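Researcher: Structure for this, please.
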Amino acid sequence: MSQSNIETQIIKSRILLKNPYAYLDENGLFSAEELSANSSASKIEALKVDRSSKQNPYAHIEKIQQSPLETSSKQPQSFSELAQDAFKLYSENQTRSDAQIEQTVELLKQIIWKCRNEIWGSHIDSDPIKLLNPSLILEKLGFAIERTSSLGTFQYVGKSYEVAGEIDRDSNTIRLSDQEPHISRNFTLAHELGHALMHAQTGLHRDPRPEDRVNFEREQVEKEADKFATFFLMPEKLVRAEFKNIFMVDEFILNDDRSYALNPSRNEKINRQIQSRRGLARLLAQTDNYNGDYLEPLCKRFNVSIESMAIRLEELEIV
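Model: Predicted structure, C-alpha cell format:
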C-alpha cells in the first residue's frame, strides 16, 4: 500500500473514532487532499481558503501520552467542562516538578485548541502568541476578573510589598491590584490561571516583585504558579523561533559584530550593560533595533515584562 493510501486509511479511522484532530497533518495543518477525500461539497469549497489561515497555532506542542484529554471516557462539550474533567487530578496537594508543570501547560493548550471554535468563534487569530491569553481562558473557566485599588501588603525582611493578584475560589473571582505595573498584569493573570488549574486552595496571591527572587522565600504553590505562567506565556519553541527570527542565531554569543549591531552608537551605558549575562539578556529582551532593522521587542511580542523575558532567555540558555 502506498504512503498516500496508508495516510488516507489512518484519516478515515480517526474520523470513525471522532478524533478532533482528524484533519490535521503532522505539522498541525489542515490538508487539502485529506479534506477533499473525506468531506462533503461544502467542506471541499472551504479548501479555497489559504492553508495559512487554517494553521494550528499549537502545532509546536508535543503530544502528552496518557493525558486526561485522551484517556477520559467522558467527553464534555464545553471548554470549562473539558478542562475541569482533565485537571481534576491536578488539584490534589502535591509538589510538582518543572517538567510536570510544563506538561500541565501543554495539556491546557491541547484543550484550548480542541475548543477553539467555542473560545474564539470565527475570529481565531493565526498568530499563536496572541492566543496565549490568560484573561480570556480564565473567563472561559468561569472566573470573573476584578480590578481593585489595593489587595493589601505583606512583610518580608522588614520591607512591605503590595499583593499583585489573588484567586478567590468561593466566588470564582480573580482580583488584580492597580498598584501593579501594567506590563506585569498578564503574567499575574497567567499565575492565577496556574492556581486555578493546579491548586485547590483559595486566597493564593502573587507578590509584585520581579520574577528574579534571589533569597526571597515563597510558598511552593507560588513558585509553581510562576512556572506555569512562564511556560504558558513564553513556550520554549515559540521563544526560540522568535529569537532566531530577530537575531538570526540559536544562541547569542556576543562578539564585535553583534555588539555593533546592538549598539552602533557605542553608547557607554549599553556597553556596561552587556558585560553581564543578565544585562545582555535584558537588552535582547527589549531591543527594538538590531543591525539597523526596526522590530517588535521580545518582551512586547510575548506581552511580559523585560525582566520576565530576560530570565526566560537565560533559562533556555539562549544568552
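Researcher: Any notable elements?
Model: The first strand starts at residue 144 and ends at 148. The chain is about 45% helix and 10% strand.
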